[in-house]
Design a protein that fits this description.
Elements: E1 3-9, E2 12-17, E3 21-26, E4 31-37, E5 47-57, E6 72-81, E7 86-94, E8 101-102
Antiparallel strand pairs: 1-2, 2-3, 3-4, 5-6, 6-7, 7-8
Length: 113
């Protein structure tokens, strides 16, 4: 399964596979840490060509007697090799399973592999 793109994010190297899977590898131990199935490209001839992960800080909410910790979100940006080219962005959720991140349960009718 050919590698389409690679991204190093927060100590993990992510490989975008042509089959529509994003794999997270720990290069220090050479172990696969996570696999994330990506949404299906809109047409058969389109495919995901690039990937970038980004963590964005939210604003801290202050109350009278306590400060809540600053909330962060992880965004997955993917380029679609289509005509015209497209850039898709998804806000990911932390996972409790073997995968580090998951797509939200409500993902706007996007079909997954």
């Amino acid at each position: 399964d050919p590698i389409t793109a690679m991204e190093h994010f927060e100590g993990v190297t992510y490989l975008l596979r042509q089959s529509g899977v994003l794999q997270g590898w720990d290069l220090q131990t050479a172990t696969l840490q996570s696999e994330l199935l990506l949404p299906q490209a809109p047409t058969f001839s389109d495919r995901w060509a690039g990937v970038a992960l980004e963590r964005q800080n939210g604003s801290a909410v202050s109350h009278l007697r306590k400060n809540e910790a600053e909330e962060t979100s992880v965004f997955l940006h993917m380029s679609l090799d289509a005509f015209p080219p497209e850039l898709w962005t998804f806000r990911l959720e932390a996972s409790t399973s073997d995968s580090m991140f998951t797509f939200p349960t409500e993902c706007g009718g996007v079909a997954f592999n």
